[in-house]
Amino acid sequence: MLSSLAALAGMDGRKVQQARRALSFIAPHRRTISIILVLMLLVAALGALEPLIYKLVFDRLGSNTGLARLLMVVGAIVAAALVKEALNGFSNWLSWKVRLSVNYKLLDETTARLHSLPLSYHREETVGGLMTRLNHGINGFVTGISDLAFNILPGLIYLTISVVVMFRLDWRLSLLVVFFAPLPAMIGVAASHEQTARESSLLYRWGVIFSRFNEVLSGIVTVKSFAMEEAERRRFMGDVAQAHGIVRKGVLTDTWIGAAQNLVVMLAKSASIGFAIYLIQRGETTVGTLMAFLGYQGGIFGPVNSLTGVYQTLRKAGISFDIVFSILDAEDRLRDAPHALPLHEVKGEVVFSQVSFGYNEERRVLNGIDLHVQPGQTIAIVGPSGSGKTTLISLLQRFYDPTTGCIKLDGNDLRELQQRSLRRQIGVVLQDALVFNDSIRNNIAYGRPDATDAEIEDAARAANAHGFIGNLPGGYDFVVGERGGRISVGERQRISIARALLKNPSLLILDEATSALDAESEVLVQEALDRLVQGRTSFIIAHRLSTVVGAHKILVLKDGQIIESDSHESLMEQDGYYASLVRCQSRGLLPA
Ligand SMILES: Nc1ncnc2c1ncn2[C@@H]1O[C@H](COP(=O)(O)OP(=O)(O)OP(=O)(O)O)[C@@H](O)[C@H]1O
């Protein structure tokens, strides 16, 4: 049945497959759905029999009917209505239960997928756009499959019962009703192409609008610094107005379509009444039959329309299915190999062998990198902006795989290791340390939610953070605000150092952690970092040469290649690029 419906909706084989796959999300609720369908069938049957009662009332009860009999009839109608509403209510409750479960499962699967997809996927997407599409996709998906599951069968049953009863009552009037019945639906079908295109274009627009809005709010400091609030507001409202324009045009089209459908219904009713009166005058039918037909006629357009609604929903749902499945099926080139090994104890020997990498095919960002780091060594990476320092570190965390060559940790190719277990062994302290809008305690325990309060405090002490935390209202329970906006840059960095210390990683990645700080903060952060790097293999990305003088090895990267690699003293003796950088910095040409 799904295939024929889908074919009717102009859906190709891929779409039919997609609709099937969508329906598999409700498969675990088969039993509840069966109960809902039975209830809906009863409701549909009761609805279909209702006009018959009117026929009986009009044909059998004359003007001399006693009050008791009248009350009985009214009582029977009320009782039938009560039963119908009770059944309807119960089936509605059950169907919401199913909808919410499907919604939960979809959210579970899509968010799990979004978390597991590699950085390259997220770099292609915008947060606001993704959230808008995800929200729309999941809602449309749930509506689509519940319509598929719950609207088609009861509608068909109602139609079947009604048509059978009508033909038994009067075949000539029935032919008239059946002739008009599909017309509103056909108008709906004709309009659905435009409606689907409109839906798609609106979805795209809202995605773009909210993606920008999200960027603006996240970068509100920049927006305010450049006094661009008004310009951003105007841009946002301008885009919203354009989207509203599409909605308005759509509403107008929908109103015309609705009016045309209602007109057809009116025409149908008038034709039935006229024809029935003609038949009554000839003594070939009764007033009761006319009343019953009017009931059926009103009732029949509903299911036919809702079947058209299913047709429209199927097309609209196709858009939502596309969104959800595009996330679930997004290619994950970095997923763990089936035989990937977990990483437990790490000594910290890192080897890069002939590693080359490009974010795209056009351009190589790293070229033939060879590097051997002994456990516990500190490696400083310096080089001009854009030379590939961050990229090198991203490869070490396996955010990307090398295009050629390989990276080994303790003799294991990173591609052979389970990514999560690898990253558990790596502590990262970034220049712009990300802290979440949560308590200081939870931020420090981010990588180790099971840590005790004593462990958290020890880590904070070692990171020179315990002092300032004690001065905050609520201490460790102080909530730092979005992106840590309620504490200073240096404090954020010390929290992120405490977090790394608590995680006790074997490998460390530090990204220019002491920049943009005042002298006192810099000393505190530097002390904390010195404690952090002890006994761990550490990679420090540094623009400031003074922070790297003590490293075991300094790598100088230029245009994606290691052009020098040695200790500070040896590199100074070699008098190459590094030595020139040091001289520039001592002369104040580079920031100290
Ligand atoms: N996601 C990306 N997609 C495409 N190109 C990228 C991407 N990220 C970085 N690049 C490019 O790769 C090159 C190396 O970037 P990378 O961030 O590794 O440099 P860097 O040495 O860390 O620079 P900086 O010192 O300014 O942080 C740059 O030319 C950059 O434009």
Automatic annotation (TrEMBL):
Residues annotated as domain ABC transmembrane type-1: 35-316
Membrane disposition: Multi-pass membrane protein
Keyword terms: ATP-binding, Membrane, Nucleotide-binding, Transmembrane, Transmembrane helix
SMART domains per UniProt: AAA
InterPro entries: AAA+_ATPase, ABC1_TM_dom, ABC1_TM_sf, ABC_transporter-like_ATP-bd, ABC_transporter-like_CS, P-loop_NTPase, Type_1_exporter
Cellular localisation: Cell membrane
The ABC transporter domain, residue ranges: 350-584
Sequence intervals crossing the membrane: 34-54, 66-83, 148-166, 173-191
Record GO terms (molecular function): ATP binding
Entry keyword Flavoprotein: no
UniProt-listed CDD domains: ABC_6TM_exporters
Domain of life: Bacteria
Protein name, as recorded: ABC transporter ATP-binding protein
